[in-house]
Amino acid sequence: MGIGTYEAYVERLKKMKPNIYMNGKKHGRDEDFMRGGLYVIKQTYDCANDPKYEDVCTATSHLNGEKINRFTHIHQSKEDLLNKQRMTKLLCHRVGGCIQRCMGTDALNALSVVTYDCDEAVGTKYYDRFLKYLEFCQQNDLTCNCAQTDVKGVRGIRPHEQPDPDQYLRIVDVREDGIVVRGAKVCNSIAPYTDEIIALPTRFMGAKDAAYAVAFALPADWEGIKIMGLPGLQSKRVKLKAPVAEVGDVESLTIFDDVFVPNDRIFLNGLENPETVKFAGYLALMFAHFHRHSYTGCKAAVSEVLASQATLVADVNGILNKEHVQEKISHIIGTAELVFAAGEASAYKAVQFPNGSYVPDEILTNAGRRLAGSEIYNEYSILADLAGGLSASLPTEESYYDPETAELVAKYTKRNPEYSAEDAHRTFRMMENKLCSPFSGAEMVAGVHGGGSPIMETITMMSRYDLTPLKNIGKYLAGINDDIPRYERPTMTPRAMLDKFKKTEK
Amino acid sequence: MGIGTYEAYVERLKKMKPNIYMNGKKHGRDEDFMRGGLYVIKQTYDCANDPKYEDVCTATSHLNGEKINRFTHIHQSKEDLLNKQRMTKLLCHRVGGCIQRCMGTDALNALSVVTYDCDEAVGTKYYDRFLKYLEFCQQNDLTCNCAQTDVKGVRGIRPHEQPDPDQYLRIVDVREDGIVVRGAKVCNSIAPYTDEIIALPTRFMGAKDAAYAVAFALPADWEGIKIMGLPGLQSKRVKLKAPVAEVGDVESLTIFDDVFVPNDRIFLNGLENPETVKFAGYLALMFAHFHRHSYTGCKAAVSEVLASQATLVADVNGILNKEHVQEKISHIIGTAELVFAAGEASAYKAVQFPNGSYVPDEILTNAGRRLAGSEIYNEYSILADLAGGLSASLPTEESYYDPETAELVAKYTKRNPEYSAEDAHRTFRMMENKLCSPFSGAEMVAGVHGGGSPIMETITMMSRYDLTPLKNIGKYLAGINDDIPRYERPTMTPRAMLDKFKKTEK
Amino acid sequence: MGIGTYEAYVERLKKMKPNIYMNGKKHGRDEDFMRGGLYVIKQTYDCANDPKYEDVCTATSHLNGEKINRFTHIHQSKEDLLNKQRMTKLLCHRVGGCIQRCMGTDALNALSVVTYDCDEAVGTKYYDRFLKYLEFCQQNDLTCNCAQTDVKGVRGIRPHEQPDPDQYLRIVDVREDGIVVRGAKVCNSIAPYTDEIIALPTRFMGAKDAAYAVAFALPADWEGIKIMGLPGLQSKRVKLKAPVAEVGDVESLTIFDDVFVPNDRIFLNGLENPETVKFAGYLALMFAHFHRHSYTGCKAAVSEVLASQATLVADVNGILNKEHVQEKISHIIGTAELVFAAGEASAYKAVQFPNGSYVPDEILTNAGRRLAGSEIYNEYSILADLAGGLSASLPTEESYYDPETAELVAKYTKRNPEYSAEDAHRTFRMMENKLCSPFSGAEMVAGVHGGGSPIMETITMMSRYDLTPLKNIGKYLAGINDDIPRYERPTMTPRAMLDKFKKTEK
Amino acid sequence: MGIGTYEAYVERLKKMKPNIYMNGKKHGRDEDFMRGGLYVIKQTYDCANDPKYEDVCTATSHLNGEKINRFTHIHQSKEDLLNKQRMTKLLCHRVGGCIQRCMGTDALNALSVVTYDCDEAVGTKYYDRFLKYLEFCQQNDLTCNCAQTDVKGVRGIRPHEQPDPDQYLRIVDVREDGIVVRGAKVCNSIAPYTDEIIALPTRFMGAKDAAYAVAFALPADWEGIKIMGLPGLQSKRVKLKAPVAEVGDVESLTIFDDVFVPNDRIFLNGLENPETVKFAGYLALMFAHFHRHSYTGCKAAVSEVLASQATLVADVNGILNKEHVQEKISHIIGTAELVFAAGEASAYKAVQFPNGSYVPDEILTNAGRRLAGSEIYNEYSILADLAGGLSASLPTEESYYDPETAELVAKYTKRNPEYSAEDAHRTFRMMENKLCSPFSGAEMVAGVHGGGSPIMETITMMSRYDLTPLKNIGKYLAGINDDIPRYERPTMTPRAMLDKFKKTEK
Questions:
Q1: Pairing relation of β-strands C67-69 and C351-352?
Q2: Which residue in B has a C-alpha nearest to residue D163's C-alpha?
Q3: How far is A505 from chain C (nearest CA, A)?
Q4: Which of B368, B377, B354, B420 is nearest to B116 (CA)?
Q5: Which of A126, A303, B215, D227 could form a disulfide with B267, with the two C-beta atoms 3.0–4.6 Å apart?
């Protein structure tokens, strides 16, 4: 069956070997610190099983025609890309932020495209291997992590030039039955509670970086994988339960401490054939691209959630109809709309690749993601502005129930009479969670960096955008050229970069 | 035949009665001050006749299946809306800015939707009348102006409350064979060189404003129409001809000095039936909406043109590859992409109306237009930044040919050796045109206000956006509500405002 | 002696009656949750006793010529105002943010000016009473809180119109020996660990609000004062002690549950004489004004601290010399410089008031404070940008010491070889504290709202700025007026508002 | 006498040899195209002779104690620097923009400091020579231009590396009685109507650039100086005279076509002594620094003028009291205040140099100038926003007097009844001048680039700002360093760069 349940997922986690290191101890996946992350992932199973969300949260497997969870699906059409955006947005609404599971989806989609293209070009046999793995993920509705960002050591020099060669994940041994890898992946959110970890390269690799051109998938508790965990949680509520307080995650630094990868789990190996090395960068970009396209869904949702909270707290404060308040909320809404529209327009321009996948337009995807990233702190600033200082000085929850203070704090934190004291309290408790908690701090950082920081999107845009025809418009208008050919920017995808890269190599 | 020629258009203009007032004289349409505007409109005829642009610049009339100029077409599909955007962008590239003729197209489309709806609701007979007029425009490929913005007098009070009742265009007499109107429309670009002037209301009208609920079309030289003209032109080039220097317009204040409108040219008359009054606002919004959607095409082009010129001048200056230069250009490109994507996504969400027309999504359209408007001066700032001060202190063109100075000025204004002295000169001459001319100043002002200034788009967005389901997301996350219904923002169009307005009235 | 010690301060706190309500219990001032706030206040005593800081941290009392802690000083000159700014900035550097104690200083200065002016105008006797209280504060080097912001209930209506009349602090009983007050003050930082609480009005009061025109000072543990506390603390470090982790505060909602105020502690009482009522607003503004001037010192420091941390983490990341990094850091530095310069220029323009105090220029002070407030989230965004995602996913501190992981995490979180693994760890631990903690979230909120949110500063600026002479420049240039008088903006202080208010009253 | 008259100035100009090349002809200084520039310079003479402005517009010569025009004064105190700022602002108010004459003042001040320091260090005799020249300027109240910006040819390579060695002004011959120079200076505003042209280097020069290390002063019509002129003028008004329409300038590219400079006019000559070469960069920076400090006066005025015009037009439009209008105007005012305050605070921190001059703080000066430059287009955007589209489509002036249209256009361009039709007309005519004219376009470009574009100020700030003590704050807070020394940023001046440069050389 291609649609799993939360219960089955939790059962699988419980059976895993403890390999999460925190606070000086080794932890399994059955402890309370997991609660926030599990709450989020739960939505991805529940909604796939809920007829209300079926149209967006499920898909039809191109492998066997079965109904599957869309999180394990390879996009077969523009409609699939649009539905992924919609699913992402809808689920993000339910958790008030990142739905977390898209990274696995994006890794599967990137592998599908790139293993096929690599096989075609080089004659390797990765794609069939990948399809078997994909079927396994679809059948069991597995939650996958994507471990991409290497720790990178000294900036500005290439992997093989590093004083410590392990600063990028690399192959340290090749055996008959597989390879041994060493290195670490950072900012590796949700690794502590996924079934599988998919490791992909983080950048282009040159000929001398062949040992670094490696991609594979392994169970998250595999021998030698050591996960340094960092839970992101809201304080437990005493009485006033609320989704915003249930949500959390466990971030990680995932260390591959000489880990054996069996052959059937290897999807790229630069030591196998030097021609495959350049596919490392192609794969890195392809994952980043799918992931940024996912962000056009989730970041739109993040902005909408912030707008929803800004609207609510402004209403509780009795200032919702003020001109400047409307203007500020409209600013967040406008960003949400533009980011989502960038993703939609990218999807409509998507190109079918040789493996059958649809890949959205890269420049628009990056333009959308960049806008979101450059606005995120500003959106929190607006929320803080409209919420007011009470967000940062709210009496503790217990004070609302302590007989000596309950009546007083209720009296003095009520505002707009249309909201009960409890609803005002709930609203400001949410503001505290949203504006003044480790988890919200991490959300802001993730808003800047997740999927690539704004400067990476500028670089991606400008490395892909062909300035020549654009410059020709200028030359025509200046009278330097006699005419301009009719110009419409062609759809760009990471493949263009691969081609460019090939030319440069020679 | 539904595709006219520039020559036929010019012939029609020449036959018109002089009614353009400038510099203390009355002018006809055969003088040199028209050259800039004619140059622009010429493109709209030439490209419709050019097989290279046929796919976007022509359309199939829904009246008779004939091939027509897309500027006279009523959008029959989402594809039509997308093609209008593409046509607009492509033509704007050719003139380095506004293509000017879309206002007529947008007026025709608004009338098509609203006259039909009005007839349905009230029983009037405007739609058939409109169709006859439309056929006349299509058959002759007429260029139409839209006169919308009233001079408005005292702000903050309604038309009928004005001390001078003529501050909004109004009906001052009703006759058997027509009506007599009085008032003036401002910022009425291109009226001096269009075949027809279509007058539409500028705002919602209340019951007491019935005489102001009026829409009609008349030939531009009709008795009583007095056009106060203001040519926007670049200085004539001595030697270095260039498209950027050919382009211009004639702005106007169009005065209706007790003008008779025959019955077959009236498309809304609030005195005919009090039920029609509310359609004034609906028509005002519908035109603004179509026009803002056109802006998602032209403003994207305006940004691309600025990016093209920034790229060229940065290259001539030898700084194109600097990190900060790339970042600045990418900022303009990103805006162009997002604005155009907003228009595309609006088109994909378009709704078919009872008359058969497709109407794009209003919130997205406004979000896109607002972004463009709020960025325009910043984009010129980037252009000025990359061009440098020479743009504002270039020797006169003659100095490049005066034997005493020619060699010296060529020597001292050459920069990047990849560009000849003449090409550098051409580039900076274009910078002078673009940064330091009355026409470019007007372009900046139009970038802010054309189609509605940013604050109008904020108001439109917020009056249409339903904050309740959004607020419910906040309530759900705070634990105030138990669950949220699945929420996706529905497509919004000006019709929603009409419905809202109807409710308010009661 | 006018310069106290931290030890004496702590002794005084220990003797106070428990009246801090948190987590369902009543707490005294001898518990661990106070540690962060005490760490900060400690600097204000230690530096006053440190010869290195003596020049800025001490002053000469105008009451008796004794050397006192500058935090208890009434500014007697422009130099005093400049020194207050410098002291604030220097101490803020030491705690990496708000020095917390300035609110008391600003309250004393506001009372000094306003009680004198009120006595002069109305014949009350507040100033002498105030001087006795001031001497008591100076002699004992007391730390004072200022309780200003009322909870405000329903926005947009005045205090006496509130359905619940206690939403603004008010006099509920007048006795021979004093008054009884009821109400609550919110966002009342540091009240849990100050000697004294000074309560001031939060806004202008009309004639019907006379009972709300009240100001007084009381010991923080006075009968009936109930402090709802909220500690802001960083997680305790296991091994790597660092100032950034020591710093904290305790925020509060301070409830006055029918509190008796003896006559000698009352500094404004609107029920005593109706003429005094208008001094409520004057006092509110005067405190806000002094407080915003303090912000030109502390916010400059906050920006410098963020720039210092951005510089450090960029260096640890090995990217400090990148063009875009330098540009981003320069942006923060530029803001710090401009904010501080606004405060300095305000001080140089300061006006001596009848009581002998110097009051800085209001428009400049607000312009500086506003810039800081509007940039604060952006500055955190830059810090997050340069720090990278590791800030939000750092392994727990214990992982650096757990034998099973210590070597690995050190290896994989080291970067620029010029920094040891421990220093890199220290730097990212600080980033976690600064970007992802409840305390840093509260710092961001305080950056927006402390001393008045940006919109309040805009309102203050515009209510004080006389647009008439400015408009006259426009009229002169347009030829409407024949000439302009020489125009230099006069120094503005809250007094102008008092005068304006008086006129409006009539 | 040290205070001249406009009449004497004009007489001097009339006597000059024609050497202004425009439109293919050679022009003298007695033609109408000069009118705008002369109007501006006139204010600098008239106000120095007007008792109302005497305190700021005159100064006491340190050479002989005579009263002189402040534009010829060497700043002898902080008060002088503050007065220069005030003078600049006041005069800019009168012309609605740049007062143009400060460039000469700044050149004289830079020469005063640098020639003295050079003599001290190297043993040259420039300072005495300079003093004689200064006295000549003071006695005759001469208007001086500063020719700094070389045309620069190929970017990114040094002067002596240029394929065409004349792309930076250089010495091509050394004679007994002087030197011969060749090259061209661009963006050389006001050269066509100054008495003298002072040429200074544009950048640091290395040992091989010795021939480029040259500074001198010559009469503007000196043999071999060829001025390529570009007049900036508003259209002549028919009836409605107004200062805004009188103002203008003549920009230029000034070519030195093998020009002989007699010894007594040479202030730096790198061929005379290799040790002097490094003073070229010092002089370049010192002029830029004084000029940017002047900008803290004039750019504050430019913003105030824009705010004054925004206020007026908003009032004419009847929207002045709208919340968003007030917010926008306050934004411009806030910038003006902050920019001016940066200059004031720089002045208060000024350092006395060996020659006796006062030199303001460099980082603050640059922070202030940068803010102004980065806001200028945004301020025009606000003006365009509040003025509305009529600014770009106003009927021609004659239409207001043509009997056939006069009444109609008056009727239809009147708005707020508090303003007569003529005053409304005057206001919008000013808007046309300000938003849509070649001169206003040039003003915007100059707002970005004059005195150095924003990126140059960022580079200057960051090359001067010592990040080490700042980074130490970060290290202390992180626990890397045990303590921080008390840190206050020292005053920085271009001299620091000279010292840095000296170290680098070795």
A1: unpaired
A2: B417
A3: 26
A4: B354
A5: B215
Report ipTM (2 d.p.): 0.96
SS3 content of chain C, % helix, strand, coil (to 5): 55, 15, 30
Residue C229: closest CA among chain A residues belongs to which residue?
A395
Is the model's pLDDT at C308 over the cut of 50?
Answer: yes
Q: For B439-453, what is each residue's pLDDT tens digit?
A: 999 999 999 998 888
D334/C370 Cβ within 8 A: yes
C86 touches chain D (CB under 8 A): yes
Per-residue pLDDT of chain B (506 residues; tens, 9 = 90+): 689 999 999 999 999 999 999 999 999 999 999 999 999 999 999 999 999 999 999 999 999 999 999 999 999 999 999 999 999 999 999 999 999 999 999 999 999 999 999 999 999 999 999 999 999 999 999 999 999 999 999 999 999 999 999 999 999 999 999 999 999 999 999 999 999 999 999 999 999 999 999 999 999 999 999 999 999 999 999 999 999 999 999 999 999 999 999 999 999 999 999 999 999 999 999 999 999 999 999 999 999 999 999 999 999 999 999 999 999 999 999 999 999 999 999 999 999 999 999 999 999 999 999 999 999 999 999 999 999 999 999 999 999 999 999 999 999 999 999 999 999 999 999 999 999 999 999 999 999 998 888 889 999 999 999 999 999 999 999 999 999 888 899 999 998 888 776 665 54
The residue to which tokens 């840190």 are assigned: D487
- CA contacts within 13 A on the Cβ side of A189: 26
Q: What residues of chain A, 186 to 215, have a C-beta less than 8 Å from chain C?
A: 186-189
What are the structure tokens assigned to B117, written together? 């709806």
Query: C396–A444: do the CB atoms touch at under 8 Å?
Result: no
Here the tokens at position A150 are: 């290497």
State the smallest CA–CA distance between residue A354 and chain C in angstroms: 35
Q: Distance (Å) from the C-alpha of residue B110 to the closest C-alpha of chain D?
A: 22
End-to-end CA distance of chain B: give it in Å, rounded.
48
What pLDDT, in 10s, does the model give residues A14-58?
999 999 999 999 999 999 999 999 999 999 999 999 999 999 999
Q: At B199, which helix (H) or strand (E)?
A: strand B196-199
Averaged pLDDT, C342-349: 98
Is the minimum CB–CB distance between D324 and chain A shorter than 8 Å?
A: yes
DSSP state of C419: S
Subunits next to A (3 or more Cβ pairs <8 Å) are B, C, D
**Cβ pair B392:D455 closer than 8 A:** no
**CB atoms inside a 10 Å sphere around CB B151:** 23
What is the pLDDT, as a whole number, of residue C1? 67
Total CB pairs under 8 A between chain B and C:
6
The reply to whether C163 touches chain A by the CB within 8 Å rule is: yes
Residue keyed to tokens 């010569």: D61
Nearest-angstrom CA–CA distance, B130 and B113: 10
Instruction: Please give the backbone phi and psi of residue A349, each rounded to the nearest 5 degrees, phi first.
Output: -90, 5
Size of interface A-B (CB pairs under 8 A): 209
Task: Quote the DSSP letter at residue B215.
Answer: E
Residues of D in contact with A324 (CB under 8 A): 323-324, 327
Q: Which residue has the tokens 């004005």?
A: B162
The per-residue DSSP string of A56-96 comes to HHEEE-TTT--EEEGGGPPP-SHHHHHHHHHHHHHHHHHHT
State the sign of the Cα–Cα–Cα–Cα dihedral B340, B346, B348, B353.
Answer: negative
Rounded alpha-carbon distances, angstroms, from residue C7 to C12, C40, C42, C100, C218: 9, 14, 9, 18, 22
- Structural domains of chain A, with CATH: 6-288 (2.40.110.10), 289-461 (1.20.140.10)
Residues of chain C with Cβ-Cβ distance to D429 below 8 Å are 478
Partner residue opposite C338 with nearest CB, options D305, D327, D367: D367
According to DSSP, residue C336 is labeled H
